[in-house]
Amino acid sequence: MKYYVVIPAHNEEEFLADTLNSLLRQSLQPAKVVLVNDNSTDGTEGIMEQFMGLSPIFNKLDTHSSDAHMPGSKVIDAFTKGLALLDTDYDFLVKLDADLILPDNYFEKIAYIFKGQPNVGIAGGFVYEKDAKGQWKLNHPMDKNHVRGAFKAYSRACFKAIGGLRNAMGWDTVDELLAAYHGYDIYTDEHLKVKHLRPTGKAYDQKAKLLQGQAMYRMRYGFTISLIASLKMAFKQGKLKAVTDNMYGYFEAKKEERPFLVTPEEGKFIRRLRWRNIKRKLL
C-alpha cells in the first residue's frame, strides 16, 4: 500500500533525526514525507536538509504558524500546510510527530490493518515513555481504542469523509468521533510500541490547561458529559484541578460563543455515543 507522511516540527533538533531515521528503517517505505519547519530557531531545518540529501522521499516546507507551543492549533495548522503539497494518490495518510521512534515494521503492520479491514478508518499503536528509572513504560491515558495524536494513520476514504483535521485542541478526539459518525472503525495494535522521546505536554504553554474544557464545549458534549469526562481525566492524572480548569474553559468558551467543531447532527451522535460508552463502563 502507498502512504504519505506529514511531520510538523518546531524546534525539534534534539529528536528529529531519530524520528526520520526510524522512517528510513521502515520495512514498508513511505512514498512521500513532507517535513514542515514551523518557525524553528534551532537546528531543525539543517536536519531536514540533511535527510533530504539522503532520500528523495523527503520534502521540506518552511512556515510560521505562531510562536506559542500550544496543543492542537499550532500543530494542525502546520500539518494542513504540509498536506497542501501532496496529492490524493495514497492508500493511507499519516500525521506524525517529530519526537518518536517507530518499530521497523510499524507501517507494514498499519498497511496490513487497512488492507485486511476496509472498514478501519484510523489505525495506530501505543505510546511508551521513559519512567524515572529509565524504563520504557506504556503511557496511554485514554481508552485502549484511541489512537494518540502523535501518530495518526487515516485511510484515504475516512480522511475525506471527516473533512480533514480540525485546527483546535481536541482535534485527535473529534477525528475519531467523526470517523464513527461516518461508519468507520478505530483500530489499535498493542504490539506496535512507539517510543515517545518527549513526555506529553512538557512544552505546552500554561494557558493550554483551559483548552481541554473549551474543546469539550466546541465538540458539543454538553455540561454533564463534559463534567464526567473531566472527573475521569482528573482521576487518571491524579490532578483534581483538572476538573476546575476544564469546566472554567468550558464556560469561558460558552460565554464567548466559540464556534463549534461539529454540526448539530454530528453533536447529537457524539453525545449518544459518549452516553453509550459511559453506560457500558458502569454496567
TrEMBL record:
Residues 5-145 form the Glycosyltransferase 2-like domain. One of its GO terms (molecular function) is glycosyltransferase activity. InterPro entries: Glyco_trans_2-like (IPR001173), Nucleotide-diphossugar_trans (IPR029044). Keywords: Glycosyltransferase, Transferase. Belongs to the glycosyltransferase 2 family. PANTHER family: POLY-BETA-1,6-N-ACETYL-D-GLUCOSAMINE SYNTHASE. This is Glycosyl transferase family 2.
